[in-house]
Amino acid sequence: MSHGLVVIGGGAAGLAAARTAVARGVRPLMVTEGPPGGECTFTGCVPSKTLIEAAARGEDFAAAMGRVRATVASIAATEDESALAGEGIEVLRGRAAFLAPDRIDVGGRILSAPRVVVATGGGPRVPGIPGLAETAPLTTDDVFALTGPPESLVVLGAGPVGCELAQAFARLGVTVTVVEERGRLLPGEAPEASRVIAERFVKEGIAVRTGASVTRVSREAGRCRLEVDGGAPVAAERILVAAGRTPGTHHMGLSEAGVRTDDRGFVRTDDRLATTSPSAVYAAGDVTGRIALTHAAHLMGRTAAANALRRGRGTRLDDSVIPRVAFTDPEVAQVGPTEHEAAARHPGARVAYLPMSEVDRAVTAGRTEGFVEIIAGPRPLLGHAGGGRVLGATIVGERAGELIHEIALAMRTGMFAGRLAQTVHAYPTHAIAVQQAAAQFVMEYAGRRARPARPGEHPT
Question: What is the pTM of this model?
Answer without folding.
Answer: 0.94
